[in-house]
Amino acid sequence: MMETMRRDGPETLAASTSLAALAGLVERYAKREFSIAPGGHVQTIAPGHYTVSGLSRHVRLGDFVAHKSATGTRLGEVVRVEPEQVVVCPIEPGDPIGIHDTVIRKGAFRIAPTDNWCGRTINALAEPIDGLGPLLQGDVRRSISNTAPPSMTRKRVEHGFRTGVRAIDIFSPLCLGQRLGIFAGSGVGKSTLLSMLARADAFDKVVIALVGERGREVREFIEDTLGDNLSKSVAVVATSDESPMLRKMAPMTAVTVAEHYRDKGDNVLLIVDSVTRFAHAIREVATAAGEPPIARGYPASVFTELPRLLERAGPGVEGSGTITAIISILVDGDNHNDPVADSTRGILDGHIVLERSLAEEGRYPPINPLASISRLARKAWTPDQEKLVARLKALIHRFEETRDLRLIGGYRPGGDADLDMAIKQVPVIYEVLKQTPGERAAFDAFTDLANALKAAAMGNQPGAAGTRPRG
Ligand SMILES: Nc1ncnc2c1ncn2[C@@H]1O[C@H](COP(=O)(O)OP(=O)(O)OP(=O)(O)O)[C@@H](O)[C@H]1O
Ligand SMILES: [Mg+2]
């Protein structure tokens, strides 16, 4: 007993307290943010990028570095690593950079989203740009270049939902966790359709990435179209005048915010307008890094980054929620075989094709129901609906293929029962598919269609107005 008393005397106690304090300090400084960051010096400076010596052994491709100058610290991304130097693209070009300035490694770019981000608009660096004060930070810091969950651990996609856009709910219905592309030339109606889809009420959260948009459209989209959904939405914005690095990061930041909500069990809608501008930004960055172009001026990294980004959307692992991604793709010069359009079409679970000719006819949203496909439609339709849609598509096809013939008077009604049916019903179907952005979302598009067809059939009894006499 005396022995123990002696060992636990005041000196021993003091020693163990100091040891505990030391252990605490070791634990604290072992954390990544306290590690000694390797640094280097600026060697050459060119428009859009600069090179740094002394960092080659310490950084990985895609790591962030901080450039220290007289005016402050600015971030850049490592886009090329060579034995003697690394090439860095500054996040915001135009920052003064001098030869021999110090550059230190930062590692992956991380953000810490929380529920408090809902209702806020942020930039690609997750800084608030809506003037509503500072943004609260969550406990978990996530790298914006995370990878998708392993495919075998992910839930299956099986629950359909209503978008409220009749043309989509009838012909290409969607499922939670699906990834859908909207393909169209410029000014055909992509952003308007996205804004209509953003109002779907099947989601707990909506995350929107506006990439390379005009500044004017950003406020319009956020304030006018989100409406009631604003309080559950986060918008990540990189306008057309921002640097290619910020435009490249915006969708990655958005998908990282969406992943945070998905992992908490929410069903999230992720909207990216437009993926083509994301691809353009990668092209600009890669060109600065000296990567050779392989298809229509696009370097290979565009075709590796696109699937990396889009694969992160989709269902989460068991027990988490889903990310349903709806993205827009600009098809250059209305050429639907443009390399970015081609490669995204292969990655996605469906595509909606908007046609300029339909927009010119005033048939908005200008969705071509025959060219649009939802690869998960079968899970959203009932067997009866599936049969009905196949029939509707056949009628529309018949109507369209005989359009020229009928215009020159080459068809006399009565010759073909199917075509007669198409001539009667397709204009009604087209009328049902028309929808303005302000129009209340359709509760059940099939009921609307059935009612319209019934009304038309009643009005088109023999002798009624609108019936053409049989020739
Ligand atoms: N559902 C609709 N109802 C009525 N008008 C529409 C509809 N959709 C689009 N429009 C018209 O088409 C115009 C262009 O639409 P929008 O800006 O959505 O096209 P976009 O494809 O996103 O263009 P950009 O390629 O320039 O981004 C709108 O200003 C509007 O006048
Ligand atoms: Mg647009």
User: For the CA atoms, what is the radius of gyration?
Assistant: 28 Å
Q: What fraction of residues sit in β-strands?
A: 15-25%
By DSSP (H or I, 4+ residues per run), the number of helices equals 15
What is the total tally of β strands? 21
| Overall mean confidence score, pLDDT | 86
Provide the list of bound ligands, each named once: adenosine-5'-triphosphate, magnesium ion
What is the subunit arrangement here? single chain
Low-confidence stretches: 1-5, 461-471
Helix fraction bin = 25-40%
Compute the separation of the termini in Å.
119 Å
Main sheet: strands, sense, barrel:
9 strands, mixed
Structural class category? alpha/beta
Shape: elongated
In short:
The protein is α/β, with parallel strands linked by helices and 471 residues long. Helices cover 36% and strands 22% of the residues. Strands 8, 12, 13, 14, 15, 18, 19, 20 and 21 form a nine-stranded mixed β-sheet that branches.
How would you describe the overall organization of this protein?
The protein has helices spanning 2-7, 10-29, 166-171, 190-197, 215-225, 244-263, 275-288, 300-311, 339-347, 356-360, 377-380, 383-401, 403-407, 417-433, 445-459; strands at 39-46, 49-53, 64-69, 72-81, 85-90, 102-107, 110-111, 120-123, 142-143, 160-161, 174-175, 179-184, 205-213, 233-239, 267-273, 293-295, 298-299, 314-315, 322-330, 350-353, 373-374. It has 471 residues and is α/β, with parallel strands linked by helices. Strands 8, 12, 13, 14, 15, 18, 19, 20 and 21 form a nine-stranded mixed sheet that branches. The protein has a six-stranded antiparallel β-barrel with strand order 1-2-5-4-3-6. Strands 7-9 form a two-stranded antiparallel sheet. α8 packs parallel to α9 (339-347). The protein is elongated. The structure holds adenosine-5'-triphosphate (ATP) and magnesium ion. Adenosine-5'-triphosphate is lined by residues 184, 186-192, 330, 364-365, 435-437.
